[in-house]
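Supplementary material to the annual report.
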Amino acid sequence: MTGAALPLARRRSAYARRRGRSGLTFVTPFMIVFTLFMVVPLAYAIYQSLYTTKLIGGTTFSGFANYATVLRSGPFWGGVARVIIFGAIQIPIMLAIAFFFATIFDLGVARWGRVFRAIFFVPFAVPIVVSSLMWGFLFDPSYGPFNRIMNTAGFHNFNWLSSGLMIPAIIIIAIWEWTGYNSVILYTALKSVPRDVIEAAILDDTPLWKIILRIKLPLVRPAIVMLVFINTIGALQLFVEPYILNNYQAGVVTNTWTPVIDIYSTAISNGEYQLGAAMAVVLAFVIIAISVTSLTFRNRRRDFG
Amino acid sequence: MLFNQRIFFGKILRGPSAKATLAGAVAVTLLAACSSGSSSSSAPVGGKSTSASPSPSVLAGANCSSSATHLTFWAWVPGMSRAVTKFNATHPTICVTLEDPGAGSGEYVPLDNALKAGTGAPDVAEVEFDLLPSYEIQHYLVNLAPYGANKYKSNFSEWAWSQVSRGTAVYAMPSDFGPMGFYYNQKVLAKYHISPPTTWTELAADAKKVHSANSKAFLIDFPANDPQWLMDMMSQAGAWPFDYSGGANLKINWTGPAQMKFASFWQPLLDSHSVGTVADLSTQELTQLDNGTIAAAIYSAWAPSYFAPDVKLSLGQWRASALPQWSAGTKVGAVWGGSTYPVFSESQHPAQAAVFSEWLTATDQSWDIVKTPPSSLFPTYLPTLNSSAFKAQTYPISGSSQPNQVFSAAAEGVPNTPWPPFMTQVLTQGTSTFGPVLTGKVTLAQAFATFQKQEVTYAQSQGFKVST
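Predicted assembly:
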C-alpha cells in the first residue's frame, strides 16, 4: 500500500457515496410505488391464502390447506390447460400476421404506409370490453352476421359461440385486438436492423425473401421472443372476452372456464377470498415458471448478448 | 338491451328495476378488468387502461336541515329519488341521502366489502329476497322488531313476511316482488287454437302442438340456465331443494323424488325441442316473444313493465293468466324476484333507519310513488296490492286487459322458499352447471345430481351441517 492510494480511495468512495445517494433518490419514488402497489398486495395475498373463513366457524389459520385444494382442483387445471391451448394457437398465428405487416411497412412498398399502420393499431386502442361486446354482436347465435354467412355457405345451425367454437371465436377476437400492437413492436425492431447489413446483402444480389427471412427475421428474434413471452402471460390471464361473450350464449363459458374467471368466481361469487388468493398465487407461479423457462432459453441463445 | 343474462358472476336481476342493469354490469366488468391486472389476452406491458369510476351518483338528499340525522341509502330502482325526496320533506329530523352504486353486483360487491371492512356501509340498502339470509348469517342486519316492524306484518303478503322474518325477529322490510303467471300473446295462441293452459300437463301438450305446427316456433322457453327461475318453478312443484332456518343446519336436496319428478316432466320437452332454450330475459328471448316465435312465457308480475320497452310488433296483444298447476283445480303460486330494505348493523342510527325503511315499504304515501313508472314496483304491501285502482291498471303492452288482476291473485298461496345463506354461490355455480342443459349436453336430472354434489361440498367447506 502506498500513501498515495489512500486519498484516491477516499475520493473514490466519496464519489461512490454521492453516486449512491443520487441513485437512491432516483430509485426511491419507484420503490415506494412498487412496494405499496406490488409487494404489499402480493404479501397480503400470500398471508390471506394461509387462512380460511367459513360462514359457520369464522376465520382460522389453515396453513397450506387452500393450496392443497387448488392443486387438487380439476376445474382449475382444466382452465389452465384451456388457456395454454388458446395461447398455443393464437400467438403463432398472430405473430406471423404481425410480422407480415411489419415487413410490408418496413419495406415501404405499401402506399399510405403510415395511415395503414395507424389503422392496424386502432383495435388496440378500443377497450377490450367494447371490442368483446362488438364481436359478441357479430357472433350472436340468433342475429349475428357471421353465423348467417356460415349458414348461407351450407353449414346449418352453425354457431360460433357453441362450446366447440368458443375458443376459435376468442382467438379471432384476440388476433384482431393485438396484431396491430405486435406489428408496431416488430416494425420498430425491423427499423433498428443496421442498414449496412441490408445494403451489403443487396449488393450481393440476395433475393428479397432471403433478406426478410434469413437476415431480418433472425435479427429481430429478441423482439419476437419478448412478444411470445408477453402474449403468453396475457393468454394465461384470459378473462374479459369469455366473460362478455357469455352474455350472448348461455351454457358454454362456465365459472371455471379460465383460471382468472375461476379466481374471480371463487373470491367474489363464492365469497372464498382466501381460496381465491391461493389460486392467484398458484397461477402466478405457473406464469413465473413459464417466464423463467423462457428467460433461460433467451440467455442461452444470447439474444440479449 | 345488451346484456342477456345481465350478470353472470353475480346476481341475476329480477324486476323492473333490472332494466337499469347495463351500466352496472359494465361497471362490474371494468372493475373486474382492473382488479385482475391486464386481464385480456395479451400485452400486460403498456396495456389498455380502463377507468371505472366506482363513485356512486347521489340522487337525492340535498337541502336538509343541519340538525337532521343523516342516513345513507343505496338502491338501484329507477325513480327511487322521488320517494326519498318525499320522505325528507315529511320527516324534517331525518335526512336520507340516496346513492345508486349500480344494479345487482354493482351494489352487492361494494356493500359486501364495506360490511366486511366494518366501515363505509349505508344505513339502509336494497337487498333482494334471496340474498337476505346471506347477510343475516353474517350478522350484518339489524332486527327491526324492537323498532316496531311487527306491527306491519298484517299489511304484507304472507310469503313476503315469511321471507324477511324468523320467528318474531324481522330482518328487513319487504318491498316489491313477482308472483308468477302465464304471460302470453293472445293472437299467437289463437293462431294455434290454444287457450291458456291451466295445468302443466296441458301446457306440455300445447307445447308439442305448437312445435309440430311450426318447427321454428315454441309455446314457451325453458331457461334452465337461470337457477333462480328454475328454483321458483320447483317451489311450485313442491320440489324446493333447500331448507334453512338459520344457524348451522342446512338441507340440500336436488335429487329427491319431487326433484326427479320435476326433471322428468321437463326433460322430454327439452329432448323433443318442444320448448325453447334461449336464456331468459335475453335479447333473443324478448325478440322472439315480440315476433311471435315464442308464444308465451312463465313470467312474473313485473313482466309487463320489464318487457314493455322491447315490444314493437306485439303491442297490446299480451295477456296474463294464472300459473299452470301440477294438479287440476289447485291454486299453488310461485314468486320470482323482489327486493327488501334491511338496516345494517354498522348503522349509527338504527332507529331512524328503521323509520325510513318502514315508511318506504309500509305506507300508502310511499307506494303511491314507487308503484308508478319508472319505478313500477309490484307491491308486497297489501293495501296497494289489493286496491281496485292497482288491479284495474292497464298497460299499453296488454291493451285493455288488467294483468294485475291475475298477478294480485297469484300473490296468495305461494309456498315459502327458504333460501340457502350463500345464494350468490348458488346462482353462479347453478348458471354454470345448468347451462349445458340448454345446449343438450346434459339432462336436467344429470345437472341436478352434479349440482347436489357441488352444493353439498361447498356447504360443508363453509362449516354447515348438511343433511340431504
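Chain A has two domains: 5-48, 69-300.
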